[in-house]
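Issue 218. Parser rejects a valid record. Input:
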Amino acid sequence: MDDSMNDATIRLAVFVGVLAAMALLQLLFPRRQLQLGYRRWPANLALVAVDIVFVRLLLPTGALGIAIWAEQAGFGLFHWLGIGGGVAVLLSLLLLDLLIYAQHVMFHAVPILWRLHRVHHADQEIDVSTGLRFHPIEILISMLIKMGAVALLGAPAIAVLLFEILLNGMAMFNHSNVRLPLRFDSMLRTLLVTPDMHRVHHSVLVSETNSNYGFNLSLWDRLFGSYVAQPEYGHDAMRIGLPDFQSGRSDSLKDLLLLPFLRK
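Output the parser choked on:
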């Protein structure tokens, strides 16, 4: 119980800290002028609360609980091969990041999964709150996939905790509306996904939507040929979102929950 509370406290503290930092930075150094701006935040943040409650009720142990069980049972590839310590942690971080990349591609490629994922893409603007905007059923499926991978790998609990913190923090960072110096962005994206790199993924152009799937490392997009350096119409002129969801008004929580079940 104490370990679970400490884990939750750490993740909550990092979440609030990164959200506050990115919100302040995008206010001070905006990349694009946002028309809807903070009017989108109540629904986006309410959706996060629904996600947390939904997954906690259905999968209370989460991926970290599976990692602790695998360590105690000696289950998983790393245990069977005798791989432990820092090597197991580094391999876990790398392979779990590859898994998230592959999962993201799958959510675009499989129609029924895309219906869920388009809740994320239907945001008509992109800022730090977009990085938290996912349908509860998508979050549930993602957690089940992650739990299965953690069990099969026998990933160390510390690696799983670090990965979940990194994934959440990087999602807020690379969705943020922060203007980075171009030279710094160019250097940083050789390793990590930057806001300018990921913004391309939220273009209304299908060829750009189906690119730049990475959340943490930029390596996977380059390796698998899904990397697009810049949007065709530039960052200031590009349209964000999906062609069928350009109402010009802020979504409500009800809109976001029902969106996967709409025909268009």
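Fixed in the parser; the record now loads. The radius of gyration is 18 Å.
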